[in-house]
Predict the 3D structure of the following.
Amino acid sequence: MAKVPAAAVAASGLIGGYGVARWTKKRQLGGAVLAVAGAAAAQQWRQQAGGRAAGALTAAYVVAFAGSHPLAKKVGAWPAVFGVAGAVALASWAVADRRG
């Protein structure tokens, strides 16, 4: 079975977390999706690129989530979420996924 790249896991966590929170109107459920995907991506990052890179990418994931909120006020919610998800996916690919 092919392994899902960490970039896809992280981007899916950001997009899916927002989608679940929006559609269910339960922010905690969206947060759970965000956290589970983030933890899965962090584990892959650690395996592929080491602890230091995993820490930096995990921080980028959290900053992207937090940064999507003020960005959404300027460009809209979905464009903000897709933008930060793309940025995290690109960082993941550059630091970890292309090595694996």
In short: Helices lie at 6-24, 27-49, 51-75, 77-97.
